[in-house]
Write a structure and sequence with these properties.
By secondary structure, the protein is of the alpha+beta class. It is 18% helix and 33% strand. It contains six helices and 19 strands. Helix 1 (62-73) packs across helix 6 (210-226). The two termini are 29 Å apart. The protein binds zinc ion.
Length: 338
């Protein structure tokens, strides 16, 4: 609990009841120019937590940039408690090139908490983590599906962590997926440092999608209310999170994938999710769901190889994850994720 006091961030002092637009470079300069990305700090007048919002750690994930912008744009320092720190475009170099990656093809979200003497990615990660994230009492890191995949707006959280479990309840009726998170991600590193953190996934990369942006924004605004940073939404409506375990269904054949379901659809075991057609032999194979569930993520129509993860099914679960259901999956390493 902080607030009602000055925040020292990136060498600047932000007094209570004020807003600052700081610039952070993360040491991302390499040709004499310095790439700087905005860090918006809204420091309230009353006591409360500091919530951090990060977007575009993957430079091509545009929905998060807009979500962070919408959440922070109309926050008035005089009317909030605690503070909000928004970094809409963490990976500015990737963003400029329309790429998920840093210029050296490294994935920034595999290098947290980083190392001041490590690789370029590791130094940028360290600069963000040590310079900004350590000041947070909670973190929402906004992402989208990876290349040619899309996700229903959802939170990914390690629900074995009691602080994280409490944190996700603040988002109201959002869909919550238990996911321990992989080492190197910002969410994982923050949670390890005692900062409750979630990934908010919404939509697909390379696009700005109004429905997904609206839903993601609404979830975070609701969180601001729950944390009593703002007092806007009528909290009388008891919207509760909906919990899922997830299961990826893979294509067993290569070819052209066409989906026969849409994002959010409820399916029953045995239903056909899509077709994969070999364009040379004309042979068609169907992809079935092995379980009852809901389509919470999916590949867009495209050419796929055998083994390609096509549909992510959410299976209703309880808020406290069943360890038996969350045992490490042999295929976890190549599961598409944040
Ligand atoms: Zn991402």
């Amino acid at each position: 609990m902080r607030g009602g006091q000055a925040i020292e961030l990136l060498g600047e002092t932000i007094p209570p009841g004020s807003m600052r637009r700081l610039l952070w470079s993360g040491g991302q300069s390499f040709d004499g120019s310095s790439d700087q990305t905005p860090v918006l700090v809204i420091n309230g007048t009353g006591q409360g937590p500091t919530l951090c919002l990060t977007g575009a750690i993957h430079g091509d994930e545009l929905n998060g940039i807009e979500i962070v912008r919408r959440v922070t744009q109309d926050l008035e320092p005089a009317r909030i408690r605690g503070a909000v720190i928004g970094i809409p475009i963490v990976n500015l170099q990737g963003f400029r090139r329309g790429s998920r990656y840093l210029p050296d093809r490294r994935d920034l979200n595999r290098h947290f908490p980083g190392n001041p003497n490590g690789s370029a990615a590791s130094r940028i990660a360290w600069s963000l983590f040590d310079g900004i994230i350590r000041h947070c009492d909670g973190l929402v890191d906004v992402h989208t599906g990876s290349l040619n995949r899309t996700n229903l707006p959802q939170l990914r959280a390690d629900l074995r962590d009691a602080k994280v479990r409490e944190f996700v309840q603040g988002f109201g009726g959002m869909l919550v997926l238990h996911n321990p998170g992989r080492p190197g991600t910002l969410r994982y590193a923050a949670a390890r440092a005692g900062i409750p953190a979630v990934t908010l996934e919404a939509g697909e990369p390379g696009r700005l999608q109004s429905a997904q942006v609206r839903e993601g924004t609404a979830g975070i605004v609701r969180l601001l209310d729950t944390l009593k940073i703002v007092n806007r939404v009528n909290l009388l409506s008891e919207a509760r999170p909906v919990y899922y375990q997830s299961k990826w269904v893979r294509a067993d054949h290569g070819g052209i994938l066409f989906s026969l379901v849409r994002l959010g659809q409820i399916v029953e075991a045995g239903d056909v999710l899509g077709t994969v057609t070999d364009p040379i032999s004309n042979e068609q194979n169907l992809i079935y769901t092995p379980v009852d569930g809901r389509v919470i993520g999916m590949a867009l129509n495209q050419m796929v190889m055998p083994g390609f993860a096509t549909f992510n099914l959410g299976i209703a679960a309880s808020a406290v994850p069943d360890e038996a259901l969350t045992a490490p999956d042999a295929a976890a390493d190549d599961r598409p994720e944040e």
